[in-house]
Specification:
The chain is of the alpha/beta class. It has six helices and seven strands.
Length: 189
Amino acid sequence: MIEPISLKKGDKILDMCCGTGGATFAVAEKAGDGTEITGMDLSRGQIKIAQRRIKKLATTRVNFNNVKFIEGDVTKTCFKDTYFDKVFITHALHETREEERLDTLREAKRVLKEQGRVIVLEVDHPKNFFIRVFIGFWFFYWLPLNFETPTRKDMLRHGLENEVKRAGFRNIRKTSSYQGILQVVEGDK
């Protein structure tokens, strides 16, 4: 999903809600050396796993010395205003309530340089009924205690691109992938 996204050598990139670093490492591999990449997540356990993964991946052909992981709240980061060129938010907003989603997006805007870009990779709402049913079963949306179901439905009802716009971004672009299962929403500061 990040293949069409343009990354430049020397970019400073923040991966908000990075989890164990899956997307962070994919971005780092695509960006290459000379790019500073910071993954941030609220979960200490996820960050520890991501940090261990750096050591394991050190034996691969890709150099991940430009990647670091920190624990923290993405709605109130420790970064200076206008520090990053790009901010990624990957598969996390659907787990939060509307105000938390907007707070996260507003913080992304604060830490982005002028002309910076936010890139949000998220679930989407496939038009095909059978795909929706399959995805619902696959991700356990049918379980009454699945905490993601109400927040995911709320995000899809409001429209992620609308929330990115409400957070103050402009030139909003949405691309649906995999038959509408996933979406990439980009916005410029």
